[in-house]
Every structure is written in C-alpha cells, then in structure tokens.
Amino acid sequence: MMNSKIEQEPQQSVEDLLKEFQLFPFILDIISRLKDDELEVSRAVNALNEKVAKSLRVLNSIPGTNRTLEEQELLLKSYKDKLRKKKELIAKLTEVEMFKKYTDSDENEQSSSSSSSNNNNIDQQQDTNMINSVNQDIEMTE
C-alpha cells in the first residue's frame, strides 16, 4: 500500500534536489549587506530562512525519509523474503511438466514424442499436485 504512494509521487532529479539546498549564495548576500542598513540585512536573513524552510519541505517529501533505519531494514528484509519465496515458486513451476515445454523446448519435444499415454497420465497427476502445492504457497505469501 505504501509502495503505490511512493511510486505515484513525482521523483526529482539529483540536480533539482541539489539546487534546493544551495544556501551559500544567500549567506554571501547576508554578509555583503552587513555594511548596509539593518532592514536590508533583515530581508536577506528572511530570504535565507525561507530557503531553509523550502529545503526542509523538499527533504521531508522524499519517499522513505519518514522511516527510521530499523524500519527501512525490516522493510528491506520483508521484500527480500517475498522475493525469495517467489523465486522458489517459480522454481517449483518450472518443474511442472506442462511448463517444461516452454522452458526446455528442445529436450521436451524429443522426450514427449517418445512417452506413452500412461506416462502422460502420471505427468498430469504430478502436475496437478504440484500446481495445487504452488497455489497453496501463493496464498501463504499474499
């Protein structure tokens, strides 16, 4: 659910982000106005404060910055676990006879032409059992 929010937010380029944090010109402006009257210095300080506030808003809008390191590590671990489980399911599916013809087309074409109908029935039963097992695994991962 959070992923969809992250994906929907517009991503800023690194250059755009760096521009938001260029505060040095504002500081130089304040220093150059120190010999001017107090009002000019005050305006320059206000401009710097506005720039800092805008920079903080940009920083807080970056996806994931609201999470602690521990939360990020837990999220990463859960994503890695899901990926591992899905890889295992894919490996199981590649063992199903009806899918092998799509993964190992040359080998299966030769072996399937020489197999008997009895072997086909056994293969179909094994495929059905494997698919049922994979379906149960899928339900557990969701």
TrEMBL record:
Q: Which InterPro entries match?
A: Med9
Name listed for the protein in its UniProt record = Mediator of RNA polymerase II transcription subunit 9
Could you describe the subunit structure of this protein? Component of the Mediator complex.
Q: Where is this region: Disordered?
A: 101-142
User: What GO biological process term is on the record, naming one?
Assistant: regulation of transcription by RNA polymerase II
The molecular function terms in GO held by this entry are:
transcription coregulator activity
Main localisation: nucleus
Keywords (alphabetical) are:
Activator, Coiled coil, Nucleus, Transcription, Transcription regulation
Function, as annotated, reads: Component of the Mediator complex, a coactivator involved in the regulated transcription of nearly all RNA polymerase II-dependent genes. Mediator functions as a bridge to convey information from gene-specific regulatory proteins to the basal RNA polymerase II transcription machinery. Mediator is recruited to promoters by direct interactions with regulatory proteins and serves as a scaffold for the assembly of a functional preinitiation complex with RNA polymerase II and the general transcription factors.
- Can you say where in the cell this protein is located? Nucleus
Family affiliation: Belongs to the Mediator complex subunit 9 family.
Q: Which residues form a coiled coil?
A: 69-96
The encoding gene is med9
Where is it found, in Gene Ontology cellular component terms? Answer: mediator complex
Q: Where is the composition biased (Low complexity)?
A: 110-127
Q: Compositional bias (Polar residues) spans?
A: 128-142
